[in-house]
Specification:
Elements (H helix, E strand, L loop, with lengths): L1 E7 L2 E7 L9 E6 L12 H8 L7 E6 L3 E2 L9 E2 L5 H9 L4 H5 L5 H19 L6 E6 L1 H10 L8 E5 L6 H7 L7 E7 L7 H14 L2 E7 L7 H15 L1
Parallel strand pairs: 3-4, 3-7, 7-8, 8-9, 9-10
Antiparallel strand pairs: 1-2, 2-4, 5-6
Helix pairs in contact: 1-8, 4-5
Length: 244
């Protein structure tokens, strides 16, 4: 397996594949890390996906972009963010049962992060010649929200979405666009004991996507804010189906 560091769309990315030099992929997966994590946080998932489905080796490239914002000044050394989150406000809202603030607010900075991710996709399309239907977008927590935002603003639907520990934000903007994801396979997992992004908020997102006609694979699990093994297994299955 090779791992390269590349600048794509203005983002520093780790690109993981088993493809020989010069051979272009048939399917590209873009996975975005969560708030406060280092840019390399999800890179190890590449090995796990190739181990779970060896048939991916001759056709799939996985890209792990690092978010543009450093959190060093906030004491989270090495941590990065797609947009800033007031964690004290979020925790307070959850403690007081005011989680609707999540769906009602459009995060400041989400457009800028989205445009960077769309530019990354454009760079990869230029290199590979692949249509958007051969891109699977996803991520964990804040990174998964960014994946939804990007998918809703593509010129064509992506080939799939992977949303680990995600939630519904910016509902007023997302809901009118959600029909663009009709027929798109969506993998979503969420822990029932998630203390950062409550389970109910994940259900809001699931229901919106189902109502829009997305093909939903929803994985609830007993656990916290994390990626469960079924979340990896089902992603490997989705990717294997797309390259079969």
């Amino acid at each position: 397996m090779s791992q390269r560091v590349m600048e794509l769309g203005g983002l520093t990315c780790r690109v993981v594949s088993h493809l020989p030099a010069g051979v272009q992929p048939k399917l590209v997966v873009v996975l975005c890390h969560g708030f406060g994590a280092p840019g390399t946080d999800l890179v190890g998932i590449g090995d796990e996906l190739f181990d779970l489905s060896p048939k991916l080796a001759d056709s799939v490239e996985i890209i792990f972009p690092a978010a543009p914002l450093s959190l060093d000044q906030f004491g989270m050394f090495g941590g990065r963010a797609w947009w800033h989150i007031d964690m004290e406000e979020l925790i307070g809202a959850i403690e007081h049962g005011n989680i609707r603030i999540l769906r009602e607010r459009r995060p400041d900075g989400i457009e800028e992060a989205r445009d960077l991710l769309l530019a990354l996709i454009d760079d990869v399309r230029t290199r590979t010649g692949l249509p958007l239907s051969q891109f699977v977008l996803g991520g964990f927590s804040q990174g998964s929200m960014l994946a939804v935002e990007a998918a809703l603003n593509l010129s064509e639907p992506p080939g799939g979405l992977c949303l680990w520990s995600s939630t519904l934000v910016s509902e007023a903007d997302w809901r009118p666009k959600a029909a663009r994801l009709k027929g798109v396979p969506v993998l979503q997992s969420h822990g029932r004991q998630d203390q950062i992004l409550p389970f109910d908020a994940a259900v809001w997102l699931r229901d919106m996507l189902v109502e829009a006609g997305a093909i939903m694979d929803f994985i609830p699990f007993n656990g916290p804010h994390t990626i469960p093994m079924p979340g990896l297994e089902h992603l490997a299955e989705m990717l294997a189906h797309k390259v079969s």
